[in-house]
Amino acid sequence: MTADKGQLFKGIALFTPGGDLIYCIDPNKQNRWHLHLCAGLQEILGLTEPPHFLVPCYTATIDRWIDPRNKQVRISAEAYPAVLRYQSLLNAVFETGELLWQTAPWHEDLCDPMVLGTYRDRFPQLWEEHDLVVRFENSLLHPSFQPELYSPLPKSPEAQGYVLRLFVSGHNSTTERILQTLHKLLEQSLYQPYTLKVIDVFKHPEQAEADQISATPTLVKVWPRPIRRIVGEIEDIDRIMWLLVSKDTLR
Biological process GO annotation list (predicted)? Predict the structure, then answer.
């Protein structure tokens, strides 16, 4: 079942590192589907939890919309570099002919291979190839699936997920240990989309200066507001939870 060529819709595709695909087509263009696609992969592949870390690195989106200026149908199609090679498959499932997909805006640290690699032992199924191409329907989810049960954190209607920056001094065993601890906590406690950007202050001193980083490691919550930061002790779970959920003004 594919999209009608004349239909206005938004399509979202989520790939695995092994090349499997789960996607959805939303004619109403109202829903945020990334969470459901992750949950769908969890059900299909028997994962212990939804693989939220695949977002946005392994995603592609397409939007067929009416240009208000000339009332013509326009198509916007973007894919992250890791999945750009699947353009033929994307065009097949969304029936977009030989459409040329654009590279989604990204930063080299956004989808750090070292960060993604920390999940391989926990989710080996995602690195295996199952020749899976599935259009997501709500029926794929187990009847007991309720997103609210996965997260002890409050949800804000204004928030579009969390944006975090981790400033480190080079990629070493200490950095890897911090990443493993941080990702485990985020996956277990944060049932919302999030972006964790790892920034090496040696490679990007200008970014460190812009964020007023005086020491590493430093974890900064950029969104939702207020901006908060933890300097050192990144493996202190209580402090990280404080950074995520506290709404008090930072002093």
Answer: rhythmic process
